[in-house]
Amino acid sequence: MRHPIRLSSGRNMLGLALSALAFILFAVNAGQAEDYPARPIRMIVPLAAGGGTDLLARIIGEDMSQTLGQPVIVDNRPGAGTQIGAEVVAKAPADGYTLLSASMTTYAFNPGLYSKLRYDPVKDFATISLTGRFTLVLLAHKTFAPNTLTEFVALAKAKPGTINFASSGPGSPHQLAMELLAGRAGIKLVHVPYKGAAPALQDLMAGHVPVMITDYASSRQAITSGLVKVLAVASPERLAELPNVPTIAESGYPGFEASAWQGIVAPNDTPQPIIDKLNAAIVKALQQPELRAKLVAIGIEPISSTPAEFSAYMQTEIAKWREVIKAANITTE
Question: What is the reported pTM?
Answer without folding.
Answer: 0.76
